[in-house]
Design brief:
The chain is built from eight helices and three strands. It is mostly helical.
Length: 209
């Protein structure tokens, strides 16, 4: 199967001023597109590899032939991580932190402020390029983790509910070297409805939503 670049569910300027239009355009139409193209190129040699979605591909990464495994980690991870990232975002200050995710963050992580503290630390201390994540682990508990480069939490049997791209390409035009400012602003554009939907389907869905 061929993977395709998903369309953004909003215009490139939708997240302004937290994430600027130009950054979104380059990030989606160039960076994400390249991951999809490179993933398809890596899989060309093995037409029998046929997963119904990139999430399933990443969950089964250990079944991928050794000669293309790292390419699939980098580019399949790049595809699934970015697809998840775009859908998690909404216009600044429009989404309410409520519902089941609020209760679960209270019980598993000690409340919203603690979540912000843990997530900020994960995103800030990820050296070089990578991601910060809110995930559900195999025991059904929430965790805040970070991954290197384009590694996906799905490779460790963790279901990502929310991710933040901390590669420089995600913020450099607007924030330059001020990654902490970008992280601080991120909390204004989280789409909690989407996170709640992922929480509801985390157990029975093969693919990340
Ligand atoms: Fe990115």
């Amino acid at each position: 199967m061929k993977f395709e670049l998903p369309e953004l569910p909003y215009a490139y300027d939708f997240l302004e001023p937290v994430i600027d239009e130009k950054t979104m355009e380059i990030h989606h139409s160039k960076h994400h597109a390249t991951y999809v193209n490179n993933l398809n190129a890596a899989l060309e040699k093995y037409p029998e590899i046929d997963f119904k979605c990139p999430g399933q591909l990443m969950r089964n990464i250990n079944d991928i032939p050794a000669d293309i495994k790292q390419a699939v980690i980098n580019n399949g991870g790049g595809h699934v991580n970015h697809s998840l990232f775009w859908k998690s975002l909404t216009s600044p200050d429009t989404s309410k932190f409520e519902g089941d995710i609020k209760e679960k963050i209270d019980s598993d992580l000690g409340g919203y402020d603690k979540f912000v503290e843990l997530f900020t630390a994960a995103a800030t201390t990820r050296f070089g390029s990578g991601w910060a994540w809110l995930v559900i682990n195999k025991d059904g508990k929430l965790e805040v983790v970070s991954t290197l480069n384009q590694d996906s939490p799905l490779m460790e049997n963790k279901r990502p509910l929310l991710g933040l791209d901390v590669w420089e390409h995600a913020y450099y035009l607007n924030y330059q070297n001020r990654r902490p400012d970008y992280i601080k602003e991120f909390f204004r554009i989280i789409n909690w409805d989407v996170v709640n939907d992922r929480l509801e389907h985390a157990k029975n869905c093969e693919c990340s939503r």
